[in-house]
What does this fold into?
Amino acid sequence: PTAMAQPYQDVEDQSAAPIVTAQPVPSAPPAVVTAEPVGYDGKSQGLEPDGVPLITEQGEKRFGTGLCDCFSQCAPSCLMAWCCPCFTFARIRAKAQISEPNWCKIGSRFWPNCAFASMPYFFSLLARATAAVPVLSAILEVIQGVTGIVMCCLLWQTRIHYRNKYGIRTPTNCCCMEDTAEQPARPPCGCDGMPDCCSVFFCSLCVLAQLDRTEFAYSGSCQCDKCGESFQDPTAGAERLLPA
It folds into this structure.
């Protein structure tokens, strides 16, 4: 018998290499880098006043002149602080943009601060003018004392905000001595705000003079030609850039 031919079949080549499909490899997410602010400690705004340069010791700033160095700038700084302290106080708050404490909505505006600071002297004049009426004069003297205490508290808080604005350390040594490099960790009384409070209470005019010659630039120890400027708003006619 004749063998019948098998039909042609397409036989798959078993020896062919298997096809491997590459799977996509997930890429790592990009690293996120968060930039930390530099040069800001939560208090100091990184600014410098225009007057006597601050002194930096061991990474801390202090006033460039001492509390009793009033005669280092006699006029107009010392003269105005002692004869017209209400103008000096208002100029400091206006120029340094210190709006706290914002009592009676005075903010950092020049004339409202000047009027507020002049209240003790105003009631003192009224008390003397009404000396012929003892009861009224006594009432006015009491009001004068109250407004004087209020002004001391306002100057105290203004000095604290001024320190925070420029990053000036608070002295912890006895007698509020800031010109000594070695300062205790805490004031002897245990209250951080007490040194400035004592400075304002015992010599508020010295405090004003120190803040004035730190905030404003003077070219000599006596500039009588600038006395007229001490009665003017230092921000008048200029843009007032408030910190963000």
Notes: The helical segments are 77-83, 85-95, 110-117, 119-129, 134-166, 194-215. Strands lie at 55-57, 60-62. The CA atoms of residues 25 and 41 lie 45 Å apart. Residues 7-12, 32-44, 239-244 have pLDDT under 50 and may be disordered.
